[in-house]
Amino acid sequence: MPEYVYEKKILDRLADKLVDGLAIVIDRVRPGWKLKNQGRLEEWKLMLYTLNRSPLGLTGLVLVAAFVILAIIGPYIAPVSYDTQFIFCEKTKKPGEFESKLAPPGTTIEIRNSTYCRRVGLEPGNFTFILGSDNFGRDLYSRILYGARTSLVVAILVVSVGATIGILLGLVAGYYGGAVDEVIMRITDIFLAFPGLILAIAFSATLPYALQGVFEQYPNIATILRYLFAVKPEHEPALASLASVIIALWMVWWPSYTRLVRGMVLSVRENTYVEAARALGVSTLGIMFRHILPNMIGPVLVYVTMDMGGVILTEAGLSYLGLGVVPPLADWGRIIFDGAQYFPRAWWLIFWPGLMIFLTVFGFNLLGDALRDILDPRTRRSIEFKVKKVVEAEEEAAGGGGE
């Protein structure tokens, strides 16, 4: 009799090893977990099979993974610091002539031998601007690597806090209904009535002064942010503007999650398994977090993935308007803002950071679209039939014997 087997590719075999390895780790922490969750493990493998057959999804995954890796290791692999100005250490032919200022990509300059230059990390010899330099003679390649860290940290902080607030309020509003729902949703409507970017601009313009006082009173907060953004100690005061952008985006990012989750809770709370949990005496928190939330985590995860790109784009826009990162800190939007006055002569100041923003946001959008297909059981099952092929039992046995 014929039987169905998976027609596995190289990536599928890697997916099997990844899931099996993860199952072994979890089973060591929670003995017996692997045996009880065989069905879940097969479902995880099928999800990865689905991703492996989505060229756009794999492209998005590669772009996002490259961005995350660059953001993590960027400050460590950057040739120089984000604020190093070569104009003070370059050997020049004539006084006042600095070849490092607005140097095109591929320009090589000679560093002179001095105590100051060695102190800022410049050893005597030749240095090449891979992507060019800006109007202050700073290496654009190094600043873009530091800017990746800024974008990643801002996106994680904004989405994690904004999504958490929105999900909690949406759960409460949808589950309790009545007056609680009315109050939460009317507040949400007030925030949604104003353009999010306008609200973010308003908060970003007013918060830095208050945050500067907070940093002075609680220096540990500034220290934590300094390590997160890979900023030098002497530039801690500049973090107030960056922190104001994060708080401003918190203010405008939660309402969309509240409306999304509330609508899904209204359709889920009357299901049979929720009624059964109530009849068994499960607490309200248990019903919301163990029965309702897990059954709508798929759409929320897709929304979060796409929002990562949205936050990066919005933060870059605020920095371009002069309300985000302030010099000398590195940020993609700020680099474009500073380089706009030299365009098109110094085109690299806009092209390279603009390309990074485009690829990063594009990658998150592609990955979000792929996750939507992966996490949808109907789409996943339709792909499962395409993954399988019919093999005669005799051929399967012969193939196994040949191995």
Strand neighbour order, sheet with most strands:
1-4
Distance between the termini: 22 Å
Low-confidence runs of at least 5 consecutive residues: 390-398
Mean of all residue-level pLDDT scores: 84
H/E order of the elements? Answer: EHHHHEHEHHHHHHHHHHHEH
Largest sheet: 2 strands, antiparallel
Q: Per the principal axes of the C-alpha atoms, what is the gross shape?
A: globular
CATH-defined superfamily of the largest domain: MetI-like
Radius of gyration of CA atoms, rounded to a whole number? 26 Å
Strand content: under 5%
| Strand elements, count | 4
Task: Please identify the top-level CATH class of the largest domain.
Answer: Mainly Alpha
CATH topology of the largest domain, by name, is MetI-like fold
Helix content: 55-70%
Overall CATH architecture of the largest domain:
Orthogonal Bundle
Class derived from helix and strand content: mainly alpha
Question: How many separate domains make up the residues?
Answer: 3
Q: Give the count of helical stretches.
A: 17
Protein name: ABC-type dipeptide/oligopeptide/nickel transport system, permease
Organism: Hyperthermus butylicus (strain DSM 5456 / JCM 9403 / PLM1-5)
InterPro entries: BP-dependent_transpt_permease, MetI-like, MetI-like_sf, OppC_N
Transmembrane segments: 56-78, 152-178, 190-211, 238-256, 300-326, 346-368
How would you briefly describe this protein structure?
70% of the residues lie in helices and 5% in strands.
